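User: Predict UDP-glucose/GDP-mannose dehydrogenase C-terminal domain-containing protein's structure from this.
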Amino acid sequence: MVSFEELKSKQECVCIVGLGYVGLPLAVLLSKHFDVMGFDVNEKRAAALRQGSDATGEVAIGALQSAAIEYSTDPEAIRRAKFIIVAVPTPVDEHNIPDLTLVKKATETVGKHLVQGTIVVYESTVYPGVTEDICLPILEKESGLRGGADFKIGYSPERVNPGDKTHTIDKVTKVVSAMDEESLEVVASVYGAITNVFRARSIKVAEAAKVIENTQRDLNIAFMNELAVLFHKMGFSVYDVLEAARTKWNFLPFEPGLVGGHCIGVDPYYLTYKAQEVGHTPEVILAGRGINDSMHKFIAHQIVKTMVRMGKDVKRSQFVILGITFKENIPDARNSKVAALYKELMDFGVKPVVSDPHADAEELKKEYGIGLVPFEQLPKADTLIVAVAHDEYKKLSPADIKGMMNTENLLLADIKRLYTAGEIELEGIGYWSL
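Assistant:
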């Protein structure tokens, strides 16, 4: 089996399969200590990386350009690696069932080019059992080798938070696991070269740890969203309540909002799938998902109701939405709940205009059929919806907001609570927030 010494001395190569938000930052960090190759099936992506360009914005240009990484789209190149890390997306399908297509395909590709003595580590978020019960048999079938004897497997869940320049891979503890002590020692040593590690008791424990991290966050936000709906019916703002509650030392400062993206809005479904498979109904998890998945409908209905109370003709009003990515300051709009809000508003007979300085216009059009309008070309709004807290929008003053709107009977829907009602109303604009 490959040893850490062989990897450290660069006698053997490390290969990262999948060069997205997770794989690329990991490859750049590991390249400081090991001979690293990056493999991706997307030729356009690989070509851009060779030119030192990262569309995700996760890696600084200087760090990317100085990284000694070989980028390849040729599966044959995988053969020269003795330590392989699989970091591909694991979404859900239209029925919220785990879609393991990409991780299975990546495993097949790795298996076809697997050489004896290799350790294969998975980083993709999965439910407990996927690495050993699904991926391992595929590797054995495609390679003709025996897991545990000819090659070994491990699991180290990714903890990348897109757009977060503080909690980067090298500053966050890495959970590591493997099928036996020998391979665990190598896995821990490789990751230990770039950050602190925690050795999980088993691969399934590590898989479970990852999936509950985001499920816990999803549930906490769901609680805030339920409170937002409740307190709205009682006539006051959840944010005013949170401001008071935060004065207690052990209060958890979560906030309400739209929960999208490829992690928090997806991972709970992986856990519920496995729970149901073993005969358990995860009532709390499903309840949280139900609340968060319906929040865009609540927001759309409240905006429309507010406009009606103001005497506005909803269908003849100009709606402008600022921001459509699933979180601030990143280009990723996968599973965007702002896109769901857009479509919900369309059901009321309006067609909002959307602007976002970070979103990939081509991908957005392909995924949702929504076009983007440059900020400078936005029409004057009757209802302006601040949906994502991009830094560019945080710089807008109440006077700037007024300058973006028509002349009378106007509404600012401040989903991210960037403003107070008082300062907006001083500009002669109606205000709504959760």
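The two ends are 56 Å apart (CA to CA).
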